[in-house]
Amino acid sequence: MASKPNALCGERRDGAVGRRRATAWLLGLTLGAALAGHGLAAEPAAGPARSARLNYILHCQGCHLPDGSGSPGKVPDMRGEVSQFLTIPGGREYLVQVPGAATSRLSDGELADLLNWLVKTMGPPPPSGFKPYSQAEVSRLRPNWLQDPKQLRTRLLSAFAPARPPAATD
Ligand code: HEC
User: Fold this and answer.
1) What is the CB neighbour count within 10 angstroms for residue 115?
2) What is the helix (H) or strand (E) element at residue 7, kind and residue range?
3) Which of these, 124, 133, 138, 153, has the minimum number of CB atoms within 10 Å of its CB?
4) 115 C-alpha vs ligand 1 centroid, how far in Å?
5) Tens digit of pLDDT for each residue in 17-64?
6) Which fold has domain 46-170?
7) CB neighbour list of residue 99: distance below 8 Å, 6 or more residues apart
């Protein structure tokens, strides 16, 4: 009987240490994965592409996720799709004026770089003759950001190739 409280006590201590270790391990794992996953540690410092990628991580991936896959029914999957908007009337403006982009805390130049990076990275390859977004273009379009993006998005999607399901964000 005398040994029972001690055993319990020992168990509690071990439990606490175990939890602390687990927390430290998890933190290390999370940080490690974040750095490795985004190549922040490994990538050589570069020009606009580097800061666009970093800006995506800081300002966009909370909703769009690191790979652009988004979240079904809430945030559209941009992979293999986003630059298709550049092939249809109104699509080029849409990518700037969608609220996540237009109301972000990025300068016009940073947003232009980020969108240029995004369409190349998420694909499909931008249409031939694609003219990169410029700071001036973003400055011009951005103030008219979309109050009702879903409606326009549905309309734009219907102009895509017929394979596209129209209700991707509903
Ligand atoms: C709070 C969540 C959220 C954040 C943060 C966010 N977005 Fe979005 N994004 C959305 C949603 C939701 C949509 C679908 C259209 C809509 O309803 O706004 C979208 C759509 C888009 C689209 C059009 C893609 C499509 O298929 O319709 C682009 C381009 C885009 N976002 C870029 C960005 C960029 C660039 C950033 C960071 C500067 C960003 N977003 C930050 C939620 C977000």
Assistant:
1) 23
2) helix 3-38
3) 124
4) 11
5) 445 554 444 444 444 444 444 444 444 455 676 799 999 999 999 999
6) Cytochrome Bc1 Complex; Chain D, domain 2 (1.10.760)
7) 145, 146, 149
Q: Which residues, judged by CB distance below 6 Å to any ligand atom, belong to the binding site of ligand 1?
A: 59-60, 62-64, 75-76, 78, 81-82, 95, 98-101, 104, 106, 114, 118, 149-150, 153, 169
- 30, exposed or middle or buried, with CB in 10 Å at 0-12, 13-18, 19+? exposed
The pair of structure tokens assigned to 6 is 């001690």
Show Cβ contacts of residue 48 under 8 Å, excluding neighbours closer than 6 positions: 113, 116, 117
Q: Whose CA is nearest to atom 37 of ligand 1?
A: 60
CB 80 within 8 A of CB 124: yes
Residue recorded with tokens 């490994």 = 42
Note the pLDDT tens digit of each residue in 126-153: 999 999 999 999 999 999 999 999 999 9
Atom of ligand 1 nearest to the CA of 95: 29
DSSP 84: G
Burial readout 59-86 (b: 16 or more C-beta within 10 A, e: otherwise): bbeeebeeebebeeeebbbbbebbbbbb
